[in-house]
Amino acid sequence: MQTNGAVPPIDAHPLVFTGRGGEYFRVWIVNVLLSLLTLGFYTPFARRRTAQYFYGHTFVADSPLEFTAQPRKMFFGFLLLVVVYLAFKLAADSGNDVALNLFMLAGAVLAPWLWGSAMRFRLASTRWRGVRLQFTASWREVYMAGWPVFAIAGVWVGVITAVAVMVPAVRGGAVGAMPRFPLAGWAVGGTVLLALVLTVLLTIRLNYNYQGLLVRRARIGTQAGRWKPVFRDFVRIWAAT
Questions:
Q1: Which of 4, 90, 149, 197 is the most exposed place for a label (fewest CB within 10 A)?
Q2: CA neighbours within 13 Å on the CB side: how many for 69?
Q3: pLDDT tens by residue, 96-128
Q4: What is the pLDDT of residue 19?
Q5: Long-range contacts at 151-158 (CB < 8 A, ≥ 24 apart)
Q6: Could you report the per-residue pLDDT of 27-41, keeping only the tens digit for each?
Q7: In whole angstroms, what is the distance from residue 130 CA to residue 183 CA?
Q8: For residue 219, how many other CB atoms are within 10 A of its CB?
Q9: Shortest CA distance to 154 belongs to which of 96, 197, 199, 117?
Q10: Contact 51/67 with Cβ under 8 angstroms?
């Protein structure tokens, strides 16, 4: 009987992976060749074949996982990402800082929704012993966990704005003049370097938040996941790799 809010014990079943490099190479090389021949449009089907291979060779309590996603849904998701990427390239190549900043902010708003939708799709497409997994996090939880996305967007909006102000000083103020790299040049370099460091740290935090939410809000039948890592564990892993 559970007392004083204690967490009940669980039966631990280690994951067992039975795949081999030679087997996966055949899957991988076919995926690569077909993706090249189709100019990348085979990518969602390649991802499905890869997931099916890894899931089918991953055993929990002597039973394999199953990946049952429909290729049509994966293809439409792929097309959505292509459209978003092309829109970003258009904004970046336009040279319009305002358009680029607005796109980055819109991307930050959209990113948690894309991640949450992908996790719902992935878990709903995963079965174990005939039981379908679920991702039960609310959208409020998804967006709260995704706060580093908004911080990253804010950092780079600030960088783009600051650099736009400082670049004329770096060029000496004259159109076509050779850069003299005065104090303003060091300020530009330092601003970009600081933004890169902050982006890495915020990315680690985003990875930690999302992985924790995925585990805690995943369900196999009525069983929920448990999450034990802390943030510094992720920092050590990223630093080591």
A1: 4
A2: 27
A3: 777 777 887 888 898 999 999 999 999 999 999
A4: 92
A5: 151/198, 151/202, 152/108, 152/198, 152/199, 152/202, 152/203, 152/206, 153/104, 153/105, 153/107, 153/108, 155/195, 155/198, 155/199, 155/202, 156/104, 156/195, 156/199, 157/101, 157/104, 157/105, 158/195
A6: 999 999 999 999 888
A7: 65
A8: 15
A9: 199
A10: yes
212: closest CA among 144, 132, 150?
144
For residue 135, the surrounding DSSP H or E stretch is strand 131-135
User: Any idea how long the chain is?
Assistant: 241
Backbone angles phi, psi at 166, to 5 degrees: -85, -25
Cα distances from 135 to residues 5, 101, 138, 211, 215, in angstroms, run 24, 32, 9, 12, 9
d(CA 24, CA 46): 12
Rounded CA-CA distance 191/203 in Å is: 18
What's the rounded Cα separation, in Å, for the pair 191 and 160?
10
Cα of 72 vs its chain's centroid, Å: 22
- Taking the C-alpha atoms of residue 45 and residue 70, their distance in angstroms, rounded to an integer, is 10
Given a contact cutoff of 8 angstroms between Cβ atoms, the answer to whether 159 and 195 are in contact is yes
